[in-house]
């Protein structure tokens, strides 16, 4: 298949962790993957690692005015967008009463508003050809209460609600929308949260029946499944990839 016949995907936060693992799975399956993030160095390292099908496009998605030109640039370069993975997200661990208005709003801006704006602009392109796939990345924080992550929890709960609303409205028009809720995955972001808090780490593992942390590639495999026709009859679902954490005791 010629490169210009490949499916075209966008992965936000594609320079590291789960985003990079998703990009890696896509590229391995001949999907041209545009990786978006703020850190140019990480994006170019991703390109070095994954090869020509990985296309770095630096952008700060918190600058909402930058999103429309970004989408236009991608469509001009590749002709279309087939897959969007909304993976970029930030977290903050802080006591509930200590979280400031600004901190709360900052997390909602990155994790919810930027996802909405990017999705809206990409959907306009997908509607023109009557097909597309959107995958939102949620968190187990939306499945049950985790202390000290109030803004993150609010943002990821919003993402799951948006997934269902988007799927209901867009699926009749050929666009499937699903969500992945990762459990405890071994990334730099989770290491920061767990390694400084052994009690939290033990609790996380203790209630995960599989008994070990997931790898970013586990989320990559789930994203690849949801991005392809293997999941053509699945929309509006939240797929937990959590080693059984949500049902563990």
Automatic annotation (TrEMBL):
Domain of life: Bacteria
Keywords, in A-Z order: Oxidoreductase
Molecular function per GO: oxidoreductase activity, acting on the CH-OH group of donors, NAD or NADP as acceptor
One Pfam family hit: adh_short_C2
Xref: Gene3D superfamilies: NAD(P)-binding Rossmann-like Domain
Recorded family membership: Belongs to the short-chain dehydrogenases/reductases (SDR) family.
Name of protein: 3-oxoacyl-ACP reductase FabG
């Amino acid at each position: 298949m010629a490169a210009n016949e490949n499916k075209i995907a966008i992965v936000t936060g594609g320079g590291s962790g789960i985003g990079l693992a998703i990009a890696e799975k896509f590229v391995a399956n001949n999907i041209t993957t545009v990786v978006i993030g703020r850190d140019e160095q990480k994006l170019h390292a991703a390109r070095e690692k994954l090869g020509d099908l990985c296309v770095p496009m630096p952008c700060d998605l918190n600058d909402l005015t930058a999103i429309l030109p970004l989408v236009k640039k991608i469509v001009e370069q590749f002709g279309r967008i087939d897959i969007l993975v909304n993976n970029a997200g930030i977290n903050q661990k802080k006591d509930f009463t200590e979280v400031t208005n600004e901190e709360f709003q900052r997390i909602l801006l990155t994790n919810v508003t930027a996802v909405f704006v990017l999705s809206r602009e990409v959907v306009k392109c997908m509607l023109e050809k009557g097909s597309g796939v959107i995958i939102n990345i949620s968190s187990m924080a939306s499945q049950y209460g985790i202390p000290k992550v109030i803004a993150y929890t609010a943002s990821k709960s919003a993402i799951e609600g948006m997934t269902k609303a988007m799927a209901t409205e867009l699926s009749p028009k050929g666009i499937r929308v699903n969500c992945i809720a990762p459990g405890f995955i071994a990334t730099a972001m989770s290491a920061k949260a767990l390694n400084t808090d052994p009690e939290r780490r033990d609790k996380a593992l203790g209630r995960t029946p599989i008994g070990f942390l997931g790898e970013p590639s586990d989320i990559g495999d789930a994203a690849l499944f949801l991005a392809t026709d293997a999941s053509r009859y699945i929309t509006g679902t939240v797929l937990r990839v959590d080693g059984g954490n949500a049902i563990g005791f």
